[in-house]
Amino acid sequence: MRILVAGGAGYIGAHMCKMLAEAGHEVVVLDNLSTGHRRAVQWGALEEMALADAGRLDSIFRKYKFDGVMHFAAASIVSESVGDPLKYYANNVSDVISLLGAMQRHGVARFIFSSTAAVFGEPLQDYINEQHPRVPINPYGASKLMVERMLVDCAAAYGIGSIALRYFNAAGADPSACIGESHQPETHLIPKLLRMIAGEDIDVRIFGTDYPTPDGTCIRDYIHVNDLCSAHLLALNRLERRGTSASEAFNLGNGLGYSVKEVIAAVAAVTGKKLELVEDARRPGDPARLVADGAMARSVLGWAPTCVAIADIIDTAWRWHRQSRY
What we know:
By secondary structure, the chain is an alpha/beta fold. It has helices at about 10-20, 55-65, 80-85, 85-105, 140-160, 190-195, 225-240, 260-270, 295-300, 310-325; strands at about 1-5, 25-30, 45-50, 70, 110-115, 160-165, 170, 205, 220-225, 245-250, 255-260, 280, 290. The chain has a seven-stranded parallel sheet with strand order 3-2-1-4-5-6-10, with helices on both faces. Strands 7, 9, 11 and 13 form a four-stranded mixed sheet that branches. Helix 2 (about 55-65) crosses helix 4, helix 6 runs parallel beside helix 8 and helix 6 packs across helix 10.
């Protein structure tokens, strides 16, 4: 199939493009390069543009005649969304409306949406399944939940079949080290630690040591980026096979929670470098624990993550940071 990957110059999007191409699909990347990297576009053509440009979108949809669309083009920094919510509603909601409108006008009926565990808010149970109440506590999560609701309505009204994949903390890099995680500024814990170890002047702090967790720091479910992408590929196959315009959502996670301090210890073990970090106050909008119950994705999509140990995930990221930074 010919797949449009919105945000395909970014971290997860670039890994998705590689996997799509290796599976025999044709890829077209749509990215404004505000946070993505031109050098990450190694599979398929790049159309540099903003999703809000409906006229240009129509031209691209006419040119390529897509069989499906994947969306990875969201802004995703929780703390920034709290301070600048309108940016998040514009980028994560309005721009998706623009993209879905182009799909509706041009008869493209397969959409895979990169959603997030942030739609759930404060967890009410140790492992979050698809039935968990969705009560986001920050604008980032709220913006993603708005799109999930839109997808249900677009399936009913326009026949756009969709699958939203709610993942927890993406991490790691392709084992080839030809692509990896590089944000400016970097906000994710693992790449920040690795960049600090690699000699960059980067401030890394532990935000909050008084959470109700065993060591007082936040617990997150880290999932390797290629495992995320394999779920998207399975979702695409399901949309092709299903033949209906329903909207579905699945949680993606390893079901293993690691605290901030445990991640720091694992980074030190993988790199052989000692880490001593400053402890700071909690950040607004950060739940104490986010760990997925991914049983439904396993049973319905046939998904099985293959890189689950935190040290193995970190090792792939460390290879990228040592060898092939953008």
